[in-house]
Amino acid sequence: MTERPLTDDEAWAAVLRRDRAFDGQFVTGVLSTGIYCRPSCAARHPRRENVQFFATPSEAEAAGLRACKRCSPKDVARDERAVLAAIAAIKAAEEPPALAELAEAEGYSPTHFQRVFTRHTGLSPAAYARALREERARAALSDEGTVTDAIYAAGYSAPSRFYDETKGRLGMTASAWANGGKGATIHWAVVDTTLGSMLVAATDKGVCRLSFDEGEEALRARFPKADLVEGGEAFAALLTQVVASVEAPANGFAHIPLDVKGTAFQEACWKALREIPAGETRTYAQIAAAAGNPKAVRAAGSANARNNVAVLIPCHRVIRTGGDLGGYAYGLDIKRELLRREEAGD
Predict the structure, then answer these.
(1) Once rounded to an integer, what is the mean pLDDT over residues 161-167?
(2) Of these residues, 41, 68, 71, 315, which one is catalytic?
(3) Does the annotation mark 41 as catalytic?
């Protein structure tokens, strides 16, 4: 998928937002001071008439500008290479490498490298390693004959290590993941909203499914061996919060707990979606960059499509680079209305 170049207006809007997703895509030349910066530079914004945009630091320097000492725009490419090398090291290691080891290999201090890695991926190196191993565990739980075999196949030294590390993050138990939700209890309801009929389902960890124009049959297809329970007193309180957030999405919904699982990259994309302010949109390229891999635009689109919790993970806030709304699993009418309510502050 080829992305068209940014217009100057789009670049200036990113600068005003100090949007880190655009770091590395261009630099901001400030002609009045003779410096150039990252789009996310924390320095006071220059006057628009004093700004010129350049595709690379080299182009800015050829125009006689020097790098900003505050945001170090020339370090973006170096940082990206260092993060990719660290990710490769984490994937290749039997045990997660220590932060100090990763940092030293790339010539950074541990504290600085932790910030660099987190800025690019949305996770610390330790959290990324845990997410990667959990991802392997979920895949192994689907493929291996027993839970114990799956745990060892995912790289854990002992079952106790697996349960200690994944407690509270996998949501369902290991056995449930291996057996289509067997042993898990999911409360659910279908309610009428101004956007249409809406299915809401939740484990004791949080909402695991929110969709429109679906019912019990569709839910059972997703969790064929789970214990599906319609309603429930505790669930009713959560359902009230969910409905209120869908009807008035501008009011926010970060307080609503979720129980969703995906690959490390998918979960980073969903985290980036949750961080988009109400009333704003992002492109697939921006989501890919925010998730730590600017080139994975198609994968970001796939992560959007695999979102099981509509609205609460606001994939409706993603548009195409040219401003077109793109697609939406539940129809463009619902997407338009959600965006309209957010822009209006409803």
Answers:
(1) 55
(2) 315
(3) no
Q: How far is CA 92 from the centre of its chain?
A: 24
287: its two tokens: 């989501």
Q: How confident is the model at residue 159 (pLDDT cuts 50, 70, 90)?
A: low
Q: What is the pLDDT of residue 125?
A: 87
- Return the higher-pLDDT residue of 322 and 194: 194
CA distances from 62 to 7, 36, 82 (A): 21, 12, 26
User: 23 - beta bridge partners?
Assistant: 26
Region 237-253 average pLDDT? 90
- What is the C-alpha to C-alpha distance for residues 42 and 72, in angstroms, rounded to an integer? 11
In terms of Cα–Cα distance, which of 106, 5, 83, 109 is closest to 268? 83
CA distance 164 to 162: 5
CA distance 248 to 90: 42
- d(CA 292, CA 289) in angstroms, rounded, equals 5
Catalytic residue flag (residue 37)? yes
Tokens of 72: 């170090």
Rounded to the nearest 5°, which phi and psi values hold at 214? Answer: -130, 160
Q: Which residue has the tokens 């895949």?
A: 139
Catalytic residue (choose from 37, 71, 208, 269):
37
Is residue 1 exposed (0-12), middle (13-18) or buried (19+ Cβ within 10 Å)?
Answer: exposed
The CA distance from 284 to 269, in Å, is: 10
- Range among 116-130, 205-219, 287-301 rated most confident: 205-219
Residue 283 contacts residue 318 (beta carbons within 8 Å) = yes
- In the β-sheet with 196-202, what is the strand arrangement from edge to edge? 207-212, 196-202, 185-193, 227-230
Judge contact between 223 and 181, C-beta under 8 A. Answer: yes
